[in-house]
Amino acid sequence: MLHYAFFSFFLLLLLPFSRQYLKLAEFHFPQNMKGRSFMFMSVLLCATFHVSFSIIDGLVANGNFELGPKPSELKGTVVVGGSDSIPEWKISGFVEYIKSGQKQGDMLLVVPEGAYAVRLGNEASIMQRISVMKGMYYSITFMVARTCAQEERLNISVTPDWGVIPIQTLYTSSGWDPIAFGFKAESATVELLIHNPGKEEDPACGPLIDSVAIRTLFPPKATNKNIIKNGDFEEGPYIFPNSSWGVIIPPNIEDDHSPLPGWMVESLKAVKYIDSDHFSVPQGKRAVELIAGKESAIAQVVRTIPGKTYVLSFSVGDASNSCEGSMIVEAFAGKDTIKVPYESKGKGGYKRAALKFVAVGIRTRIMFLSTFYTMRSDDFSSLCGPVIDDVKLVSLRKP
Ligand SMILES: *[C@@H]1O[C@H](CO)[C@@H](O)[C@H](O)[C@H]1NC(C)=O
Ligand SMILES: *[C@@H]1O[C@H](CO)[C@@H](O)[C@H](O)[C@H]1NC(C)=O
Fold first, then answer.
1. 25 Cβ neighbours under 8 A, 6+ residues apart
2. Given ligand 1 and candidates 127, 157, 183, which is best to mutate, with the most ligand atoms within 8 Å of its CB?
3. Comparing C-alpha atoms, which of 363, 312, 366, 372 is closest to residue 341?
4. Are 154 and 194 in contact, with CB atoms under 8 Å apart?
5. Which ligand is nearest to the CA of 163?
6. Beta strands across the sheet bearing 125-131
7. pLDDT, averaged across the chain
8. What residues are paired with 338 via a beta bridge?
């Protein structure tokens, strides 16, 4: 008890200097001021009196696996010391502890952050218990790389939410993809589980994992100034400050627990979430890059009044990432559609576009996709595409 009291006091001292405190203090959604301030107060209270770590916007405990097994718990790279061998994690099955620079066949394994990562063999898993706030939304971002030619998959879950993510090296040429997963906390402590459901012949085949981070989400609400939720994409998953790859938002996630609040990725392939620290972004700090042509689309279903006229407006641009050429963004509002051409020189910039439509139902599906596939001119193994941002939907009083 004394311990806790002391620690709370320590946290209280520390709080004003923490990054999250600063982040929470800068409200960029004036329309949500009330909700946000309330959230801020409760997060603050929670942090002070319940010693919750959930407010920390960054790596989970030993999320970069720099703390590893004792030498006696390792046989080569294989962890043999039991489920508690890797500090802060519970492991199960064939788990390897990989040092950066290690060779596998003729492949050199490079670790994105620090010097160590883990590899999950067939049916292996890593799990961590995380203190959160019941009822709040969170996003997990983690780095993943595949190591063998086989199709590899990962099942990431925070019960009852889970998602099976196919691991491809398609998106980033470094071989490591930062991937996002969203969940709603059903209790004050949740179990974050990453499991490789694979059954490969070679048990050493299986994805590498590094840099597991968490971010609290504050899902924005629709307002009368914008019926689209999170139209500026400012609310979304944690982006590693040192990674210039953005974050992959995989397809087929339930929209109410999306790591990109309000939005769902409906198509076969992912979209990329980018930030202004590493990319050119039309508005604010964050935006979405449509990286996989017609195979990747983001959508939101909004409430509409049949017969009423609406205007959907948005920015189309490029991320200043050497993604050059003629691009087209297709925007849909129910059955109405507009094609917006954009000539990209790969150096940043954007234009506005608008689609006027009359709603036919009480719900209208708003969707964006890119007509073409594009490759970076400096890196032919990296997919890229047009950026969309600042999506607004308003109803017209006088059509
Ligand atoms: C993924 O993991 C969760 C939690 O363990 C489980 O409930 C779910 O069935 C798994 N999904 C698949 C497709 O294996
Ligand atoms: C980010 O990069 C800087 C400079 O290279 C380094 O000092 C810092 O530890 C890195 N942070 C993370 C989280 O990797």
1. 40
2. 157
3. 372
4. yes
5. 1
6. 90-92, 125-131, 189-195, 152-158, 161-167
7. 83
8. 331
Burial class of residue 138 (count of CB atoms within 10 Å of its CB; 0-12, 13-18, 19+): buried
| Fold of the domain spanning 219-395 | Jelly Rolls (2.60.120)
Q: What is the mean pLDDT of residues 265-289?
A: 93
Is residue 74 within 8 A of residue 91, CB to CB? The reply is: no
* Predicted confidence (pLDDT) at residue 299 exceeds the cutoff of 70: yes
The Cα 368–Cα 314 span in angstroms is 10
Ligand 2 centroid – CA 213 distance (Å): 15
Cβ < 6 Å from ligand 2: which residues?
113, 242
* Mean pLDDT, residues 277-285 taken together: 96
Residue 183 has pLDDT above 50, yes or no: yes
User: Residue 242 Cα, ligand 2 centroid: separation in angstroms?
Assistant: 6
Side by side, the strands of the sheet bearing 336-345 are 264-265, 297-303, 363-370, 324-333, 336-345
| Model confidence pLDDT, tens digit, residues 141-181 | 999 988 776 778 899 999 889 998 888 656 777 778 899 99
CA distance 235 to 38: 17
For residue 197, the ligand closest to its alpha carbon is: 1
Does domain 59-215 sit in CATH 2.30.42.10? Answer: no
Are the beta carbons of 163 and 155 closer than 8 angstroms?
Answer: yes
The 10s digit of each residue's pLDDT in 217-245 is: 998 888 889 999 999 999 999 999 987 88
| Contact (CB, 8 A) for 321 and 386 | no
What is the Cα–Cα distance from 110 to 176, expressed in whole angstroms? 9
Q: What's the DSSP call for residue 221? A: P
| 28 has pLDDT over 70 | no
Which one, of 244, 280, 221, lies nearest residue 379 by Cα?
244
Selection from 26-35, 281-290, 380-389 with the highest mean pLDDT: 281-290
First-residue to last-residue Cα distance in the chain: 65
CB distance 183 to 109 below 8 Å: no
CA distance 315 to 302: 19
The full set of domain ranges for the chain reads 2-51, 59-215, 219-395
Ligand 1 atom 1: the closest Cα is on which residue?
155
Has residue 330 got a pLDDT over 90? Answer: yes
Mean pLDDT (whole number) for 31-44:
41
